[in-house]
């Protein structure tokens, strides 16, 4: 009996030693070293792993920056200050990063938009879109206001106000998660200091838009004729602004008959 216990213990001890040797060998064989530069970049990155940079997470981005396949300003969350810090680590010239924020291209709140029905179901824009067109909203392009974008924002930058999603640009870090989940593709990036924005995404003709929302873009092109630098053009039946050209003069907003073009937007 005692002999059997001794033999079993000896076998287990030998087996444990063999496994330890195998693991040690495998660790040495497959170890991937992280260079000092990559480690320093990982330390200064925000660690949100949001994917807004296009990489799987902060570690993957750090490695890409370290080996030169990504720029020091590739992290949209960190902004200019982080870009400068990473530039120092990499020894590259700092690139001034223009701060971008998410913007919801819809002004059709509970007062200004028309409803054709009531949606009763999961509090999700994706579900509402699948079950009842646009959650009961007459405009099939408008914000449904069920907060799918709010749910994915890690920074608390989005909220639902009077039936539509709005962005607090002071909290937004431009990670892009809200853009990815919006079933109507209503959210895009605009410059933080953008003085003029278009709060509509409908591609319907003017008469249809007017019957669905009091602040929808009518596609009249009056705004494009007012802009002295051709910064606002029609994308189908809805106006869009080229911020690389826009001088924030406000002429387009002044002439907009439905007032879907907003100056100094308070989000």
Feature tags:
10 helices; Alpha-Beta Plaits; 267 residues; two-stranded antiparallel sheet; 12% strand; 8 strands; 2 domains; 3-methyladenine DNA Glycosylase II, Chain A, domain 3; single chain; flat; alpha+beta
Helices and strands, in N-to-C order? HHHHEHHEEHEEHHEEHE
Strand content: 5-15%
* Separation of the first and last Cα atoms: 80 Å
- Give the biggest sheet: 2 strands, antiparallel
Structural class: alpha+beta
Would you tell me the overall average pLDDT? Answer: 87
Poorly predicted runs are none
Question: What CATH architecture label of the largest domain applies?
Answer: 2-Layer Sandwich
Which helices and strands occur, and which strands form pairs?
Blueprint: H1 2-30, H2 36-44, H3 58-66, H4 79-90, E1 100-104, H5 125-131, H6 148-152, E2 158-161, E3 164-167, H7 177-181, E4 187-191, E5 196-198, H8 206-212, H9 222-226, E6 232-235, E7 238-241, H10 251-255, E8 261-263
Antiparallel strand pairs: 1-4, 2-3, 5-8, 6-7
Structure description:
With 267 residues, the protein is an alpha+beta fold. Helix 2 crosses helix 3 and helix 2 packs antiparallel against helix 4 (79-90). Strand 2 (158-161) and strand 3 (164-167) form a beta hairpin. Helix content is 35%, strand content 12%. The chain folds into two domains: 36-90, 3-methyladenine DNA Glycosylase II, Chain A, domain 3, CATH 1.10.15.40; 100-263, Alpha-Beta Plaits, CATH 3.30.70.20. It is built from ten helices and eight strands.
Short description:
The chain has 267 residues and is α+β, with helices and mostly antiparallel strands.
């Amino acid at each position: 009996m005692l002999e059997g216990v001794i033999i079993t213990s000896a076998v287990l001890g030998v087996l444990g030693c063999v496994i330890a040797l195998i693991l040690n060998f495998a660790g040495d064989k497959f170890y991937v070293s992280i260079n000092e530069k990559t480690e320093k970049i990982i330390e200064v990155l925000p660690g949100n792993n949001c994917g807004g940079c296009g990489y799987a997470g902060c570690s993957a981005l750090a490695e890409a920056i370290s080996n030169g396949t990504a720029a020091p300003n590739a992290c949209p969350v960190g902004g200019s200050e982080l870009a400068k810090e990473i530039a120092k680590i990499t020894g590259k010239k700092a690139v001034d990063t223009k701060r971008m924020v998410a913007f919801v291209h819809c002004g059709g709140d509970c007062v200004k938009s028309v409803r054709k029905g009531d949606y009763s179901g999961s509090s999700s824009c994706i579900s509402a879109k699948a079950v009842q067109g646009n959650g009961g909203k007459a405009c099939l392009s408008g914000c449904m206001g069920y907060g799918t974008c709010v749910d994915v924002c890690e920074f608390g930058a989005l909220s639902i106000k009077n039936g539509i999603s709005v962005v607090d640009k002071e909290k937004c870090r431009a990670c892009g998660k809200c853009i990815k989940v919006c079933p109507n593709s209503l959210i895009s990036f605009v410059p933080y200091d953008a003085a003029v924005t278009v709060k509509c995404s409908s591609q319907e003709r003017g008469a249809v838009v007017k019957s669905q929302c009091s602040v929808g873009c009518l596609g009249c092109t009056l705004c494009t004729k007012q802009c002295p630098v051709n910064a606002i053009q029609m994308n189908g039946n809805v106006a869009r602004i080229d911020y690389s050209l826009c001088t924030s003069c406000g002429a387009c907003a002044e002439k907009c008959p439905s007032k879907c073009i907003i100056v100094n937007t308070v989000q």
